[in-house]
Amino acid sequence: MIIETRAYARAGLLGNPSDGFFGKTISVSVRNFGTSISLYESPELHIEPQPQDSSTFKSVYHLRDSVSMLGYNGGIPLIKAGIKKFAEYCEQNGIRLPNRNFTVRYRSSIPRQVGMSGSSAIVVALFRALIQFYKVEIPLEHLPQLVLNSETEELGIAAGLQDRVIQCYEGCVYMNFDKELIEKQGYGEYERLNPALLPKLYVAYNTHLSKVSGKVHSDVRARFDRGEAEVKDVLNQIAQRAAEGRAALLEGRPDDLHDLINQNFDLRCQIYNVSESNKQLIAAARSCGASAKFAGSGGTIIGTYRDDDMLNRLFVELKKHNARVVKPFVV
């Protein structure tokens, strides 16, 4: 029997990047793009490489373009790290795994390195497949931390919990990563919000603006760890925008998200170096009357729009910046 599992792209709606700093966020899963894992029993444990895992290239320019789009490692290190963490979790919790091996392969339609969490989607889908294959129960609230540890502890990727929470829970989720709460119970407060409460949303991405998020966050992380007052204050203000957004949605004021989203990005610019090309993408969206902020660490933006006329203007204007606009499918 072949086990098939999926995990979807995500977009940070409000609060990011405070999730990596004990803040608050609201995120949505974007089912327009996804990663699938196929896993079936086999005599030996085998990870099937995909084209992006190849070490053979047509030229130095082919290698350059491949690394720019897909990163250096492809998905195999993520698969290995996830399997290792799964095995360690089972051992630490007294779960004895049967003597069964498997072959695993992954496929992904998530644009890489543009802030839609393609890497963590691979690990989330993998954990879902391993849970089914070995008939293991892992509490949902603990799963995001396991996925995060697979990336941070095993591969040295700088990341936060937000991506893994929304990809595990799906839909629309408000998250509170209060430090004392996480230290006490091992996870934050994760509240599902009805996607029907959301205003009209668009997502636009440009793969030419891709970045590795760990590099983007490294300087702010160091400043935060040093206790710089400006960084802590701005991150607290960004987290507050998520709390205000949650209240607006629950109280039937979805239009309030327009200003909150814009403020989120403007605050981010106070402590992060944002490239001119990314700023131009934001400005182009706002010139149409839409709100706009990063969905992650750059390359993809998310915002609200008023009506179909504004959405059509977004299609036209953002195409000038090599960006594709989609209406996120959130359920």
Automatic annotation (TrEMBL):
Pfam families: GHMP_kinases_C (PF08544), GHMP_kinases_N (PF00288). Transmembrane segments: none annotated. Residues 247-321 form the GHMP kinase C-terminal domain. Signal peptide: none annotated. Residues 84-171 form the GHMP kinase N-terminal domain. Keywords: ATP-binding, Kinase, Nucleotide-binding, Transferase. GO terms for molecular function: ATP binding; kinase activity. The keyword S-adenosyl-L-methionine does not apply. It comes from the Bacteria. This is GHMP kinase. It comes from Persicitalea jodogahamensis. The lineage of its organism: Bacteria, Pseudomonadati, Bacteroidota, Cytophagia, Cytophagales.
